[in-house]
Amino acid sequence: MKNAKNFYLVSLGCAKNTVDSESMAALLEDAGYRGVDQPSKASILIVNTCGFLKPAIQESLETLQGLAHRKRPGQLLIATGCLTERYRDRVAQEVPGVDGILGTRRWMDIVDVIHTLRAEKPPAVLYHLPDAPTVGKDERGVLRAAIQGGSSYLKIADGCRRPCAFCAIPAIKGTAVSRPPEVILDEVRILQDMGLQEIILIAQDTSDYGHDLGLRDGLSDLLLRITQSAPRIPWLRILYTYPGYVTDRLIEVMASQPQVLHYLDMPLQHAHPDTLRRMRRPANMEWVHSTLAKIRTAMPDAALRTTFIVGYPGETEAEFQALLDFVKEVHFDHIGAFPFFMEAGTASEPLGDTVPEEVKQDRLQRLMTLQEGISLARNQALVGRTLDMLIEGAQDGISIGRTYRDAPEIDGLVFATGEAPVGQILPVRITGALTHDLTAEFISTSRPR
């Protein structure tokens, strides 16, 4: 058919999924295919799905169903990602017209799947879900990064070995597999040569990096090696660390290496020990308080982000109040919060979904209302300070970007008067504070338009 070598790819879910999508796109382009921005221009439609929580599952199914409904004769629709790894039969049943189902553990086989589907007698629905024990073993030399403006996510590991009761990721992706440090360092140098200003290290658990390679405190070692291999990358950011594995040495590396941003994302999930034990999460809150104090002593300007689940099975009002008290005491810069969603097949399923939905929503609103006041106060304390800003866009006399305090897509933005080139880091003076965002003016000697 016309446009037989064109593909249209939709990436849903987290930044880790985005990296997988970019890797698939790179493999397709190496094979002579070309990405397009409209499904009507493509012969191959690909949806890299998310299967982590019920809203994400529903979004993935609806996206697939929408493309299936508009699919023309000769077009192929391929579902890949976490949802297909976990609910392969559900995808086939609820998306009439899907041609191929590719699991997340074999994203690197996308070209092979297309060739099979274009054979003379392909099956009604091609399932390509080989019994791979985990993801991450055969990357086919593709760059495991997702570049967005002057920033790039870089995946350092995949899979997870943690026993969290609410999480299906180990079942979806398998146990943790760290990428070889030499490969990561080669990729960092490539990104440096491309002019990237920020590299964001991601994995299901970045603080577990190197455990399967026999490395002790592997993330600290990797950070040091990155700073030596790519000295021209000004910003290195860490996401998705795990409580109990943010070591004193990691804090020391973050504090002593100018390239490593004073920003740490450590999803805690709750603050009451009984709730954490039911979650099968680290429940030593003394360690949490001690570690947060060490971080702020070593880096007084540290920006701290965490994530919480409200309405977990058995969560009492007293347990939830302990979470509120903890948030009041610690004053995080950023918080992500979600109501609990029961996931079939997880260790939390036998507990039942015991907290009524209206209670979950009430607790979620109370938590986020509390955090809004904290976030606003922390932003107001920045007014008058000078911070570096990574420019991500400019229009109508305003530049939009981020400081070290904000990770892309999940935190706040800075709106600075004047238009500056995308991808530059320039100093700005903070002039105003909103709940999540800041306003600023440029103070660079080479003043933007």
Give the helices and strands, then pairings.
Elements (H helix, E strand, L loop, with lengths): L5 E6 L3 H16 L3 E2 L8 E6 L4 H17 L5 E6 H5 L1 H7 L5 E4 L6 H8 L8 E3 L16 E4 L2 E5 L1 E2 L10 H5 L3 E2 L2 H13 L4 E5 L15 H12 L5 E4 L9 H9 L3 E6 L7 H7 L5 H14 L4 E8 L6 H14 L3 E6 L17 H24 L5 E10 L2 E5 L11 E4 L7 E9 L4 E5 L7
Parallel strand pairs: 1-2, 1-3, 3-4, 4-5, 5-6, 8-11, 11-12, 12-13, 13-14, 14-15, 18-20
Antiparallel strand pairs: 7-8, 9-10, 16-17, 16-19, 17-18, 19-20
Helix pairs in contact: 7-8, 8-9, 9-11, 12-13
Function: Catalyzes the methylthiolation of an aspartic acid residue of ribosomal protein uS12.
Pfam families: Radical_SAM, TRAM_2, UPF0004
Family: Belongs to the methylthiotransferase family. RimO subfamily.
